[in-house]
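pls design
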């Protein structure tokens, strides 16, 4: 399900790329901590609560979603990063408040990918929200997802776009029990459900 294996087809940066996550992933398996997971290609929008479905529809009329190259969007990235000094009740790490610096493009392979997705205003062309999806075989790990402080709803459209276009079976958004209750509630509203890293199955929840 999650593919951390190195093969002859791997690029020069694959070993480090894998190393970055394997320890985190193995710790979650060891502790059997429920992960926040969404399944792709199974009627994502229809599965959402009504309010979230509406936000996806509005987002699709307001923004255009697509992959982008990090180094080509530094100014928009900086504006998004700097638009809020506090998120989810916590101060942003200092590097987000500095201008975004160019990245060295990574030499990866088809199974191990580094993809940036953005939501661009249909009116001005400016990017208003973005996500970095780090893919290992059939599972994508969401490392960063941020929106401009004034652009409510852009992330709803971004999740929907990635669900349709990321070419993975599962998207993980770290743990279901997040640092704040607001973040946990957000993850659930946009379609992430608890998933057992030991059995690789979703955890059935009993609703009262
Ligand atoms: Zn590789």
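designed seq:
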């Amino acid at each position: 399900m999650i593919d951390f294996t190195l093969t002859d087809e791997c690029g020069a940066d694959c070993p480090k790329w894998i190393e970055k996550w394997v320890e985190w992933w193995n710790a979650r398996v060891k502790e059997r901590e429920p992960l926040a997971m969404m399944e792709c290609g199974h009627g994502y929008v229809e599965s959402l609560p009504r309010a979230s479905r509406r936000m996806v529809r509005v987002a699709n009329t307001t923004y255009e979603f697509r992959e982008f190259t990090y180094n080509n969007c530094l100014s928009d990235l900086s504006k998004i990063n700097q638009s809020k000094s506090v998120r989810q009740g916590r101060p942003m790490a200092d590097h987000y408040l500095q201008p975004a610096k160019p990245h060295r493009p990574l030499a990866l392979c088809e199974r191990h990918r580094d993809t940036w997705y953005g939501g661009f205003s249909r009116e001005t062309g400016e990017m208003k929200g973005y996500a970095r999806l780090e893919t290992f075989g059939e599972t994508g790990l969401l490392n960063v997802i941020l929106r401009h402080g004034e652009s409510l709803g852009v992330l709803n459209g971004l999740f929907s776009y990635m669900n349709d276009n990321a070419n993975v079976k599962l998207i993980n958004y770290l743990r279901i029990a997040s640092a704040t209750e607001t973040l946990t509630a957000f993850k659930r509203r946009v379609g992430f459900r608890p998933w057992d890293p030991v059995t690789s199955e979703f955890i059935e929840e009993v609703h009262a």
